[in-house]
Amino acid sequence: MTSEQAEMENKTLSVDNEEQIVELNNRLKTDFMSHCLSYLHEDEEARQCVHLVWNRYLECVGDVAVLAAFFDTLPYHVKTSVLPKYQNEILQWCEKFFHIHSQTILCSTYYSEAFQRVIRYALKTDQYKKAIIYIATDFEPNLKFDLTSSISNIKFEHVQNRNSHDDMIDLQQLEELIKRDANDTLSYPFMVIANAGSPFLGRCDDLKKIKALCEQYDVWVHVIGDLLGSLALLPVLKDNVSIMCDSLTIDIMKLLGIQNLPYLTCFLRPLNNEKQAEDNDSSNKVHPLDEFILHSPSISFLSVWSISQRCSNENLLHHMKLSFELADLLLTRLKQTKHIRILNDECEKEYNTYSRICSDDALDNGLPRSVVVFRFQPDGLFGECENNDDFIGYLDLLTLWLFDKLSQQYSKMNLELLKSIHFQSVKSKNQLPAHVLRFAPLEHLVDNIDQDDMLTFLDDLQRFTDILLATIAARVNLSTSIAKHENLVAIPIPNWAGIGAVRYIPSTINRADMNETSMYEVNRIQSELARQLQSNDSAFSLGGGSDELDSMLYLRLGMIRKREDLEILLQKIAHAGKEIETSLKYIEDMAEKIKEGIVKAQKDLEDENLQLLAQDGLLRQLPLVSNLMSWWSPAPSASPLATKGRSFDLNSGQVESTEDTYVYRMQIKKQTVHAPTHNDATATSTDSSEQQHQN
């Protein structure tokens, strides 16, 4: 074999091996995905969602893990030479896609890691005092704890908002704090962390004014928020428009709807002179921020680079665009829905425009909505009672009920319940804590939700709102309606979203003088009422019995669809209560008669036994002797004094002998003057309770 033939054979073997490797990789990938999808065979919508995500995003990403593993095995000096090329490509992509003009970019796996890198980079090396970071009141406490634990020479200062917006920084208060801390000997103003789309309510700080203030005192401005990425939705943006900050962090996993992407941190402020001088001293020096990348898993920045090179802008923007459209549709329809209060819609033009977060040449258009926060609020319908603390707390219970109903029927909406969120009441200037519902489509993969689903959701929301209004009206009028029924009493119960509670009191019981017997009787009636009414109407339920002050049971009334339903429910309780009261009274009377009959039957049997003893003599009652006496002189087989049984007639209430029953082998019915006339024509035997005592 010549050398040329050997070379050709080696090339052929190499090609065959490559084809086998590709085939093996494809087979493993297909087998893995098929196995995962096999657990979704009953959920067709989930399967479609997974396929859609794969076709739109993940298939374009490629084998990022393989590239990352390869890059991590390279020597350090090779990494430093390779990294700038791909960093520049990511920078160019961010500038075209997000319209963000940054000096450099960092990719961080964890949220706290992104903050740590910004803080460590921006810290002034010539300062030995504590660096103060100014934050809004609702800043994540766990994140604050992680940062103070990792970086010792920083501390946080909450900026109280005089308008009681916990997610926004009050500019006047911030200026006062900075002026105060600028002359402090132990600390200095260092950084402000502002919001461009706060986590819970989606509000924006006035970045333009905050940046102007911080430039006077050389304070670093770092911005976070979902609306930072909304610049990507603008078709055209002037080159001189930029976000008013020194650095910002974007959660591209949330914005793009692709899992396992890193947090993207962009540095807009140029490097300071000292660090630039260090870079110019030696060509071998690495960019200060590149050190963070080179000492971190490379899959973070490579996953962003792979998406920037392979995915189209249309696919990348699909999740963000759809999420903003759904939030806007919900917001628009909620404004048309009566008795629904939108909490994050106050002063929309003031708090959510591009001019608040960008430079002077920015558009004055309103920013898209990333979050919609709302609650049930029937302002002005129920007069002065709406100002009571009890009524405000009751509205929270109704919001909980509304959340349960909506989340059960529309789980794909991913509604959240936020408790004790402060907002300003319509009739009061005070800030009130209240439960609210939150819709944040950006935080979930919402490809399976379309506008038709949203419209159906809104129709049901209106239907549930009508139920809540009818229930409130019934609760307000409960005492007045109960006054029409002499046997019903209204019972106040806390933590109940329904109409309230009712107790049926029998006519024979004095409400002012209740003893244990009366309480037992009342509880027995309530239990029987609940058993009967629950079988036909789910609005009834049994409650009580656990309160130390009131240990009696009562009937709880749930939600109703119409205001007129309250009177129907009360009539059902009153009517059923009368029937149960009458039935129980009949049973009690019959039980008393049975007791008297048993006593009389026992006395008659004792008298007959004494007579029989007198006839037979004492010797026949003794053991052994009685056998001898019976052998010597047998007792008559049919003694007229033989003991007879007794029966009790339920209709007549009389105790009778069972002699005829044993003679004729059947129970003989006898008509008495006490028997009811409606039994005269019946041929059926009466119900009886029989007690027999035989020797």
Automatic annotation (TrEMBL):
Alphabetical list of InterPro entries matching this protein = GrpII_AminoAcid_Decarb, PDXDC1-like_3rd, PyrdxlP-dep_de-COase, PyrdxlP-dep_Trfase, PyrdxlP-dep_Trfase_major
Please give the name of this protein: Pyridoxal-dependent decarboxylase domain-containing protein 1
Q: Where is the composition biased (Polar residues)?
A: 679-695
Q: Which Gene3D superfamilies match?
A: Type I PLP-dependent aspartate aminotransferase-like (Major domain)
Its GO biological process terms?
carboxylic acid metabolic process
Q: Which domain of life, per UniProt?
A: Eukaryota
- Which molecular function GO terms apply here? carbon-carbon lyase activity; pyridoxal phosphate binding
Does Lyase appear among the keywords?
yes
UniProt-listed SUPFAM superfamilies:
PLP-dependent transferases (SSF53383)
The cofactors required by this protein are: pyridoxal 5'-phosphate
Q: Which residues form the PDXDC1-like third domain?
A: 480-585
Q: Which Pfam families match?
A: PDXDC1-like_cen2 (PF22937), Pyridoxal_deC (PF00282)
